[in-house]
Every structure is written in C-alpha cells, then in structure tokens.
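Quick review question:
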C-alpha cells in the first residue's frame, strides 16, 4: 500500500474507498445486515478517504468516525417527518446555486462534490447536475452578485468547495474580488479534516490575500478526526490572518456525550480552531438514526458549559426553513 502522505490532495481524493467490502476488510469487520447496507450504498454511494479510515479503530463497529461514513441498513427505513428536501431551499434561489436567506451574506454552492460522503447529510438527495462547477453557471452567479450591493460576504459552499482544483478556485475567487462590495470571503469545507494536505500553498495564498477578510469554517464532529497535519495547516492560515472556525453536527453514537464534545472543543483549540455552531440534524430521509432529541442536546450543552471556557462553547442551532438566521435551540419555557 502506498503511504497516503506521499500523495497530493487530489490523488488522495481520487483514491478514496468507495467499496463497502474493502472498507469492512480494512477495519476487520463484518456487517450483520449487509444486503440492506449495500442497498443504502446504491442510494448514496459510500465514499471515504483512506487517511480518515486510518484514524479509525480496527475491529470496532462503534468507532465514532466509522459511524459517520458507513452505510447501514437503518438508512433504508422510513421515518415520519424526515424528508428529501427538509429546508425547502428552492424559493431562496435567485440564480442557480445561490442561496440568499440571511442579511448581508449568500451561500454560493460551487459544486455538488465532496471528499467524503457523510451518511447524515442532506446531500444524499442532492440534484448533482444542478450544481456542476461550470463557467456558465459561475458567470450567472457573479453577474447577480455584482448587482447585490447589500451583500458583503460570499460563502463558498457545496458539496465541498475545496474539492475544486486550485486553478478553478483561484479563477473564481479572482472574479469575486472584482466585485467591490464583497468584503468577506468564507469557505465551508470538510476537506481539510479529511485530507489535511488540502491546505496547500495555493489555498494559503488565496485565503491569505489582503483583499479579503477570510474565514474558513471546517467541519469536524469528533476529536479523533483532528491530526497534527491539520493543526499545521491551520497555523499557516492563521499566520496569514485567516479566521478558522468549526461547525459540527450533533450525532447519536458519535458525539452525543459531554466527554466527546469536551474533547472535541479542546482539541479544536489545540489546532487553532474555534467552535462555531453545533447543528441539530436536518430531518433528512435516511438519517433518523443519528437524531438526538432537543432535551438531550440541551442537557449536553449544560454539561459542556460546566467543563470548558465560554469561548469554546459552540452555539446549538438548527436550520428552520423561512427563518432569518440559524435558530438557537433553547429550553422551552413553560408558562404556568
Ligand atoms: C447557514 C447559512 C448561512 C451562514 O449563516 P451564518 O450564521 O452566517 O454562519 C448563510 N446563508 C445560508 C443560506 C445558510 O444556510
Ligand atoms: S456536504 Fe459536508 S456533511 Fe455533507 S457529505 Fe459533504 S462533507 Fe459531508
């Protein structure tokens, strides 16, 4: 086997495991409900970079990293209230791939592709063909952005914008830089967690450009996902003035304990990353087995608050269609 660090990020991305049998063999595991798991793979393909698999514990079917990426039979079960498009996003799309829901900032979905397929993700029902990174679609989005003078922040999202080649990304950001009212450039990406080499000199150059106030929002859910290579990359970005934050998703059996959250936020800070959001799961068909009830989530936050400094507390939020921001999850006040 080739040492993963000998490969550049694009080679690692291309070399990801997509075969369930191979993943199980590498981790010395067997699945009781293999037929339905294979069926789940046909609905939403299995995809996981080898370096991420290397951070999992062999022989442990409950490994918190594995649980996020392993296709299982439970995904095939219908759960009431879980739908294909829980966020009803179509009505906030002025041009293809732009989502404008919140004041001053827009989400620009540059690609449907990701370095990894997370089983809890709404992307499992994504219409990929609508989000191809084509020159025509980018041109249309750029023309629209140029006219929105009250938008000062563009958030490159997806899918995962850092699956784009450096060339494509640099070209896009150069075009965005021509729009004078855009001040902040934000990237939402799980790629650097999966493949830390993704924070390469081109990306550091791009985000470190003094033209922008740049923010990179990573997505890590468990302390075991964080590596010294990631810390090195983040450090290089921070030296160039980039703000680096993390959003996590609250997932049953992955990070739904105070101990898991405490280790996550402490290790994030060790890597130079501040916790930003802890998301309640979007109710997407096939992900019901990851759901943590609000009452338990709030208890968890109370437990975490008693263990870590305030600046390491993420905001517990959910996304409600129609709201003007992410919605804080708070205890219901009962009026007697
Ligand atoms: C989540 C999201 C944002 C970013 O929200 P912040 O609170 O600024 O992090 C922006 N636009 C859309 C459509 C979103 O879903
Ligand atoms: S969009 Fe994020 S959460 Fe969804 S599959 Fe891609 S990396 Fe995972």
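Suggested answer, residue by residue:
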């Amino acid at each position: 086997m080739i040492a993963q660090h000998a490969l550049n990020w694009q080679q690692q991305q291309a070399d990801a495991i997509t075969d369930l049998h191979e993943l199980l063999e590498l981790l010395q595991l067997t699945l009781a409900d293999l037929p339905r798991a294979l069926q789940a793979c046909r609905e939403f393909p299995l995809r996981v970079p080898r370096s991420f698999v290397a951070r999992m514990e062999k022989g442990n079917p409950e490994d918190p990293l594995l649980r996020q990426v392993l296709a299982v039979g439970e995904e095939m079960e219908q759960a009431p209230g879980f739908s294909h498009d829980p966020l009803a996003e179509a009505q906030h799309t002025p041009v293809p791939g732009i989502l404008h829901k919140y004041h001053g900032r827009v989400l620009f979905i540059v690609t449907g592709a990701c370095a990894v397929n997370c089983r809890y993700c709404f992307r499992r029902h994504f219409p990929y063909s609508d989000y191809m990174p084509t020159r025509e679609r980018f041109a249309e989005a750029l023309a629209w952005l140029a006219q929105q003078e009250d938008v000062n922040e563009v958030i490159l999202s997806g899918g995962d914008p850092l699956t784009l080649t450096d060339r494509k990304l640099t070209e896009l950001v150069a075009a965005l830089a021509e729009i004078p009212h855009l001040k902040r450039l934000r990237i939402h990406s799980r790629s650097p967690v999966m493949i830390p080499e993704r924070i390469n000199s081109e990306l550091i150059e791009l985000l470190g450009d003094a033209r922008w106030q740049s923010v990179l929002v990573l997505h890590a859910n468990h302390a075991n996902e964080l590596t010294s290579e990631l810390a090195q990359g983040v450090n290089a970005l921070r030296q160039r003035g980039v703000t680096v934050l993390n959003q996590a998703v609250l997932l049953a059996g992955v990070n739904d304990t105070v101990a898991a959250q405490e280790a996550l936020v402490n290790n994030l800070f060790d890597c130079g990353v501040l916790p930003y959001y802890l998301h309640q799961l979007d109710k997407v068909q096939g992900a019901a087995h990851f759901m943590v009830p609000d009452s338990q989530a709030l208890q968890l936050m109370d437990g975490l608050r008693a263990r870590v400094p305030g600046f390491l507390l993420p905001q517990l939020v959910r996304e409600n269609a129609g709201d003007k921001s992410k919605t804080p999850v708070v205890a219901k006040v009962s009026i007697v």
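Why it works: The longest helix spans residues 135-147. The first strand starts at residue 98 and ends at 102.
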